[in-house]
Automatic annotation (TrEMBL):
Protein name from the UniProt record: CAAX prenyl protease 2/Lysostaphin resistance protein A-like domain-containing protein
One Gene Ontology MF term: endopeptidase activity
UniProt keyword annotation of Transmembrane present: yes
Organism encoding this protein: Guillardia theta (strain CCMP2712)
Cleavable signal peptide: 1-27
Lineage: Eukaryota, Cryptophyceae, Pyrenomonadales, Geminigeraceae, Guillardia
Length: 416
């Protein structure tokens, strides 16, 4: 008795899978279905000879119709925007970007070049590769004026460069949103302290938790709390923040998107390395103001300038699990949230109260201050400005998100 029911349910499940697969094939390649139907009796017969007994015909019909609705347009025959059809050119660009990123992290980042000999100053490979990329982009952009990756070399001067078009809110409403976001950010720090106390209590109870894993879990949970509360604030204080294109734009990626991502990443590495190089050059100048500031920064203890991310990169005992858990926030969820917050909301709201160039400067300044690393303030500001420029020129927030992710992953794998 029970064996017959099992066989019956297996047949039903098999017919559901057949109907789903056939619907996917029909949706993506209707010409294939037409060719098969013209050469066989499949169009006039059910999917299974015993489908009338073991599966009602409307079950498979509903599956096929739901798949068709999501993949194919209902009127003009074009594919729906709910599904991302990927072309070979896009796949090739994505694969090329991944390979270029891996080669850059493996070979270019740790390399250096001394143009004046072994005893002269060395220039990192990132500066050379990024400088060549930037120079080629400027030369290419000077010859072409159409939209694309070449326009990344242009400056932010026009007020209509912001891809999103959210309606302006009252200053009091926007100020209240800023205050709520600040309170949520501070609350995450207090939650971090509470999690630290809780993990210490667990270690007292002989729970096997290492110091590195405890810190990584503490940072991850407090970060997720900040992302969750900040997302709730933005969703409730704005009109359809995450479901509308008025605040920020995320478009379907194509081959230009992946080219923009790898170009933006190479230029980001150049900006960061060049910023550190310029800092060293300015410190060598005999200017009283710069000398006093440099001496003040050097006099700070390592614990005062070492950020939480620096501690996550080097956990106690070289704990691999702690490093993996600690890298989830900075390498994946952090870039997504920060780009949505700074480039998606703050930049848009600032542009309603001031010129776009000033709004870009202010959003980049807030981005640099949020990392609370005085030694890296200059190049963090430059990277924030560069990522805003990437967003302007591509009109797709996926580009700065991906570049931000790649930069943070590179920092974890090959820390400077």
């Amino acid at each position: 008795m029970h064996g017959g029911r099992r066989r019956q349910w297996r047949r039903k499940l098999g017919m559901l899978l057949v109907a789903a697969c056939w619907g996917i094939i029909d949706a993506f390649s209707p010409q294939f279905i037409t060719r098969v139907n013209s050469r066989s009796r499949l169009a006039s017969m059910p999917l299974h000879p015993r489908s009338q007994t073991y599966m009602r015909p409307w079950v498979g019909h509903r599956i096929v119709q739901s798949i068709r609705t999501k993949i194919r347009a209902s009127s003009d025959g074009k594919r729906s925007s709910a599904v991302f059809p990927v072309s070979l050119k896009t796949l090739g660009a994505a694969l090329g970007a991944i390979i270029a990123f891996a080669l850059h992290v493996k070979f270019v980042s740790p390399s250096s070049f001394s143009p004046l000999g072994p005893k002269g100053p060395s220039v990192s490979g990132e500066v050379i590769v990024g400088g060549i990329t930037l120079l080629g982009l400027v030369l290419y952009g000077s010859r072409r004026s159409d939209k694309g990756v070449a326009n990344l070399a242009l400056s932010v001067t026009d007020e209509d460069k912001l891809p999103s078009t959210a309606t302006s809110q009252s200053k009091s409403h926007t100020t209240e949103t800023y205050i709520l976001l600040g309170m949520a950010y501070l609350s995450s720090s207090y939650l971090s302290q509470f999690i630290d106390i809780l993990l210490c209590a667990l270690s007292i109870l002989d729970v096997p938790i290492t110091i590195g894993f405890s810190r990584a879990l503490q940072v991850l949970l407090s970060h997720l709390f900040w992302v969750f509360t900040g997302s709730l604030i933005l969703q409730n204080r704005t009109k359809n923040f995450f479901s509308s294109k008025d605040w920020f734009r995320i478009e379907r990626p194509n081959h230009i998107t992946f080219v923009s991502i790898i170009v933006g990443y190479l230029i980001t590495c150049f900006v960061s390395s060049f910023g550190l190089l310029m800092g060293t050059f300015l410190s060598s100048l005999n200017l009283p103001i710069l000398r006093n500031f440099y001496d003040m920064m050097q006099s700070l203890p390592e614990s005062a300038t070492e950020t939480v991310v620096d501690k996550l990169k080097r956990p106690e005992g070289d704990d691999l699990i702690a490093r993996v858990v600690g890298g989830i926030g900075p390498c994946f969820t952090g870039p997504i949230w920060e780009e949505i917050l700074y480039r998606g909301y703050l930049l848009q709201s600032f542009s309603h109260m001031m010129p776009l160039s000033t709004a870009t400067d202010l959003a980049s300044l807030v981005f640099a201050l949020n990392h609370m690393n005085p030694r890296a303030f200059a190049h963090l500001y430059l990277m924030g400005y560069l990522w805003s420029l990437l967003y302007f020129r591509t009109g797709n927030l996926i580009v700065p998100i991906a570049v931000h992710m790649m930069w943070n992953i590179r920092t974890f794998v090959a820390p400077v």
